[in-house]
Amino acid sequence: MKLAERIGAITGGGSDGWEIYYRTRDLLAAGVPVLNLTIGEHDVRTDPAILAAMDQSARAGNTGYSFGPGKQELRAAIAERVAAQTGVATTWENVIVTPGGQGGLFAAHMALCDPGDRALYIDPYYATYPGTIRATGAVDVPVPTRSRDAFQPTADVLAAHAPGARSLLINTPNNPTGVVWSRDTLETVAQVCRDHDLWLISDEVYDSQIWDGAHLSPRALPGMAERTLVIGSMSKSHAMTGSRLGWVIAPPEVIRAIAVLATNTTYGVPAFIQDAALFALRQGADFEAAVAEPFRRRRSLARAVLDRQQAVRLIPSSGAMYLMLDIRATGLSGAAFAERLLEQERIAVMPGESFGTAAAGHVRVAMTIEDRAFVTALERLCAFAAQRQAA
Ligand code: PMP
């Protein structure tokens, strides 16, 4: 029997770029010790107090069908967080609760793009972006960036890709680069969106993980609130990756359109998870800062190690749980470097090539293991790179 072409087109049938990750998982399962810097997930679990709120809600009977767009109280709490963080007036009518940020990314493209529409995204990118866009029937178009620009898009490249496109997906703080885009970059993005009448989809799931300065949402820039959809999530800010609770912020008519999609696809997010999320949001910004703290600390530890050597170059990173390292001085591709590092040193990092073509010759390091092991892993990675450079 024949499957739909659309489903095969999601990955294009090629490699999904996660070979190192799968191999690491197999090695760990076989009892081989590997320092695993591939995973974009906290090394702590969801806080027990949040789990208690979840348990209490479920036991109180909140286990039936939940209302599609999310509980109004939760939508209001999310709106309040967004308004406080960005200064843009936001009410519950601007919010829909989705199964994770990933559910929001899919819903946003479904709502904005018709089959065949060109949907832009920035390379390097979070691994699911092209597949998510293709799953909607839109045509995924990567917009390249350069290492020397800290992988931030420039006005000319954006303007060259914008004509005829429907939407632009951006992500800051960025996965995989750890870069927090500058105000200049975001103003350029906003200008291009206004000039070419593009929808902007702004993935801000790392908005609580910024080490220098404050988060700037492009929705706050002039003329942008009416054309911007912000993707948010409890996954990173509250260490709730498994709870699958995210959201889309958008003009009310877009939210209503996504609500129709939700009724006919996900049927909403479980009510006891929504109650846990509401409890978690009420813990305030200090709680979010505490969840982010290990990454802030490890970024400093990493800088101390990397400042002492010349074989690898750190892309100036100031957010999210990642560092991007330029390893081109070793003469290896990111993929070859990652493979050899795993074989010889039992350290797993993601090749830059797994996130598009722009980050070739780089590797992504997730700061998601305990401090001492993290420092050891980086020291050994640098020594390995220095040996390769000398060879
Ligand atoms: N966007 C980015 C940039 C991510 O890194 C992730 C998860 N790694 C997501 C969206 C999706 O996260 P979730 O669905 O758990 O909210």
From TrEMBL:
Domain spans labelled Aminotransferase class I/classII large: 33-380
Keywords: Aminotransferase, Pyridoxal phosphate, Transferase
Coiled-coil segments: none
Pfam families listed in its UniProt record: Aminotran_1_2
Necessary cofactors: pyridoxal 5'-phosphate
Catalytic activity: L-aspartate + 2-oxoglutarate = oxaloacetate + L-glutamate
GO molecular function, one term: transaminase activity
Domain of life, source organism: Bacteria
InterPro entries: Aminotransferase_I/II_large (IPR004839), AspAT/PAT-like (IPR050596), NHTrfase_class1_PyrdxlP-BS (IPR004838), PyrdxlP-dep_Trfase (IPR015424), PyrdxlP-dep_Trfase_major (IPR015421)
Entry EC no(s): 2.6.1.-
Family: Belongs to the class-I pyridoxal-phosphate-dependent aminotransferase family.
Designated name of the protein: Aminotransferase
Species this chain originates from: Plastorhodobacter daqingensis
